Amino acid sequence: MPVPPQEIRRLCSPRSFERGSLIAESGGNIASRKVSYDGPDAVLSAFVASSSGWSDTYRASVTLDEREGVVVDHACTCPAWREYAGMCKHCVALALAYNDEPVSFAGYKPPALRCQAETTRGLKDVVELFGARQRAKTSGKVDLLVELRCRFGSWSASFRLEGPGGTYVMKSIGEFVGLMQQGSYFSYGKNLAFVHIPESLTPRAQRIHRFLARQLSARAGAAFGAYGVQRGVSGSA
């Protein structure tokens, strides 16, 4: 949906709105019109002539949330934008020009095409995630191996991930726990890559993961210290 003129008027002085409207109506004072899209946001940019004509030009940009019908952000290289609060006349002109004639902006896509593209990307993400989860369930279980050492009265532990094709040292407990929280697909090397979900781990590895996650949460991100253990398991977050 277009951003209502009232929304634009609300963000600038009456004088800026009046002058911006005149610039937008003239049309020829706005060059190199471009638009790109980021979800519901339309990001506009153009060169806008000054009141004296093309002897002075300013680079203006405006971001519009077309779903909500609001102005999200605006910027301009003109002195007025830097010195006064609110939208300058160049940003006003840019927003109004897009409302009046969006097809004049390079990169413009009708809402129907944008919606289709977003839906396609969303479906692709779902399919990829589902496929990754299925691969995780059929590619074998990943185990967590723990090696304890005692030196000079202090205990330490190191962790390794063991899969069907190989074993890799866990370099960061924090990274591993983060991957599990996000359910991310991650490759440790050509012989071990999996989706970090509980189904990918052996029952023992799941218990170790839960314990490590609790330790990280309890310590609120404090450094564990090079996978050291002293009366309990700790590691480098």
UniProtKB/TrEMBL annotation:
Protein name (database record): Serine/threonine protein kinase
All copies of domain SWIM-type, residue ranges: 58-99
The organism of origin for this protein: Muribaculaceae bacterium Z82
PROSITE patterns recorded: ZF_SWIM (PS50966)
Gene Ontology molecular functions: protein serine/threonine kinase activity; zinc ion binding
Record Pfam families: SWIM
Keyword entries, A-Z: Kinase, Metal-binding, Serine/threonine-protein kinase, Transferase, Zinc, Zinc-finger
